[in-house]
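Sample 1 of the test manifest.
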Amino acid sequence: MSAAHDHHHGPAKGLSRWLFTTNHKDIGTLYLWFSFAMFLLGGTFALVIRAELFQPGLQFVEPNFFNQMTTMHGLVMVFGAVMPAFVGLANWMIPLMIGAPDMALPRMNNWSFWILPFAFAMLVSTLFMEGGGPNFGWTFYAPLSTTYGPPSTTFFIFAVHIMGASSIMGAINVIATILNMRAPGMTLMKMPLFVWTWLITAYLLIAVMPVLAGVVTMMLFDIHFGTSFFNAAGGGDPVLFQHLFWFFGHPEVYIMILPAFGIVSAIIPTFARKRLFGYDSMVYATASIAFLSFIVWAHHMFTVGMPLAGQLFFMYATMLIAVPTGVKVFNWVATMFRGAMTFETPMLFAIAFVVLFTLGGFTGVMLAITPVDFQYHDTYFVVAHFHYVLVPGAVFSLMAATYYWLPKWTGYMYDETLGKLHFWLSFIGVNLLFFPQHFLGLAGMPRRIPDYALQFANFNWISSVGGFLFGFSQLILLFVVIKCIKGGKKATDQVWEGAQGLEWTVPSPAPYHTFETPPDPSLIKAQ
Amino acid sequence: MNNDVTPVNNKKVVKKLLLAVAGMFVFGFALVPLYDVICDITGLNGKTGGRVEVAEAGLLVDESREITVQFVAHHNAEMGWDFQPSVAQMTVRPGEVNVVSYRVSNPRATAMVGQAIPSVAPNAAAAHLNKIECFCFEEQLLAAGETADMPIRFFVDPALPANISKVTLSYTLYDITDKSNKAQAVAIR
């Protein structure tokens, strides 16, 4: 057993610890810090947008730079902030939750993280290149991105390739870990929902990231090798680009929200001190949403001129998604019903998630109705919709997760007063920021335009104030995390009174190596 | 957990998943011809088919219906050619062969090659607008200052859905001088 003894060393010292680490906790930490850095960078781009839109007219930036900001904000937030943050949580928590010593493929895990900084360095460097960075929106519709894109588009394409490779490797790792590394007694239907939602998310990633890689490869060929995939003059079709992109794009939006469902399903039972209501239905609802995500893509492109039958199909299929999503919301509310609830910061974020994500879901149903979509299409109503599901949706769940598991990661309790301050400022800020955008969209303000008609001035003013409030509030989170790493009240192993699950059976902070011998099967309870 | 079995299982899972990744990558590319096939079969997207080989005398003309066919011409931003149909619209009967011509001239000081891309509205009519001869089947080479009349011989299929009485045929001209096989000819002129 000398080999087993060797495994018990602590982390290596210095920079090489982080460069060469294959430890799931180290890699999780790297992912989380990286995504937080990207969150601040993408947020800075957003504040440039909100500063420009503070008043009508052109104040600070050229329209072309404004377009680069909207594009880079979207790309950095989607691929740099939200997705890696969930991968980071998966790395940290999945082995702890299923009683595994590490991820199944630790070396690949190291790779899948370390190629990301290069991808984003390449992407962000395009801003300093001749002709500027990508300016065609995060959806990079052809021919805007192929025929009319800046020269730096090639670097954008390679960056997307690398991000895709990283996501695919991460997804393979998650699936292999969940399928092969579960502790004895941890059956599939006993897994925490965060593990379930991530398993399904990983399959979505495997299915659609290669399609995205294919789309950008076609763009590369159209730009440099004279093919005409998306060029009408050569027999190609720009509408084909939209079909291919959204075949990736719609499952992608569920990739960004399913793990959030898992997080909220962990936090609400803890602070309601009740078992999760309807565990089985949660699993099936998640799987249904994942399935439906593959057959609704064309609702992003109702205005391209589809036949009536197509419009009706995509409208009804889209509305159908509200059913499994409704099941989930019902279950969360039912979990809280008559629970002995307390309102620590993670719970506040989780409840805000349920309320505000549902609101974003409702506007989604509005957008699904084809005839009205023709009016809402490409207006700020769409912007308000997807920001409601992504910011107080996905991002709030990430913040909830951070506060929830921070004591397990650092061994110390975070500052509850500052956490609550962060929550309330974020909550007020995010609603000031995005709620008025519904009205702007309904009144006809188009998205992705640096200037607007005078009648939109007041709501844009409110939105910008909310934007800066929300943006700068995030520095409180940074401060709370650093403070919590440095010290504070010692956290117990269980941390939260109502917390259930294997991750709360290991000491706080979680030792560098956990579950080298599988946990006692009696610790594994049905959810 | 059995430490002897897990790495083998991992290899199996990774192999399967990599296969799925490769499969989805290929599927992405397979969607390109698939898209064209679906557009072809359903006539979606207003795409018209290629040359129709038909014995013109053998066509049955449906005298009971009148269809208005409208002609539209665009050129895309960088083209710069003048491009117009000889008539804005004509009334035809299903099965009757008609000819319309588009006049095109190149006001530039250099020879250029253009390619016309057709589109039909409403989409459902696309499969029923048959072209016996069309300038859109070929690349058009125009010398500096040259003007040409480009014909289309077409007929409307009697199977055109009864609710359609007006069909718009639109052409967009693209500059393909750089990509064309006729580019050498351009260089010689």
